[in-house]
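Hey, I was hoping to borrow your eyes for a little while. There's a protein on my desk that I can't quite get my head around. The fold is given in discrete form, as structure tokens running alongside the sequence. I'd be grateful if you could look everything over and explain what you see. Here's the protein in full, and shout if anything looks odd to you:
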Amino acid sequence: MSPDPLDLHFQGAERVIGCYVLETNDGPALYDCGPSSCIDRLHSGLRQRGLELQDVRHLLLSHIHLDHAGAAGVLVREHPELQVHVSEIGAPHLIDPSRLEASARRLYGDTFDALWGELAPVPPENIHVVGPNVLGLDCFPSPGHASHHVCYLAGDGTLYAGDAAGVRLQPDRTVLPPTPPPEFDLEAWERTIDEIERRRPSRLALVHFGVAADPESHLVELRQRLGDWTRRVEQGVTEEEFSESVRSDVTATGGDVETYERAMPFWQSYAGLKRYWEQRRAR
């Protein structure tokens, strides 16, 4: 059965941020949890599925960006038995999120609290660094969007893909790669796509948003757009030109531009692509 995303209604909008409830060999788990600003919606979504937070034994994180993992510390404070699974690189930033918060506050300024809410530490005893197998799911590194990103492949063929398979707001067809600074890496992301294709998932469970049942063509489009975007920025397009071209791509396939921009602000993707080329030239 295809997993059903739990819509967190980020900023009151549908199809922007989701998470998933899945059954593991040690009971129910959440895949990603969204930001603390969406915790009330997370609780109500769990209840609609006959669960309370205290019924959930594990939290599987793709990476520590706030739209995916911002609520982790608050959830553990509410439910001290919750076990949090994260990459080795990401774990220290959950235990002490002060640097992560300071960086995000510089980026978002006065909008930080409304967007993301509280960023609380996760006690070290609740943290588990992921390995190749996590609670019966295959787990593997999937850098490109972020160096510490991991994916989880379930036995039914569902790949819990985080941002490694891009953004596609079901039922819209457009696949976009979120490329924010500071860690976007084209070559690493292309290797991640190779790894996903090698594993031949049956479907892609996307946090932004929903389940893609056509992984082969989805990944082809993701790879093509990654190449196209990096070439555009290398050739000197401005942020305004870049953003307008992305809006045109979304509109051409009947997608909702406003919702895509909520899920992955186009100016952030431009900034990450620009930084990528600046770093390459500096080397």
Q: What stands out?
A: The first helix runs from residue 39 to 48.
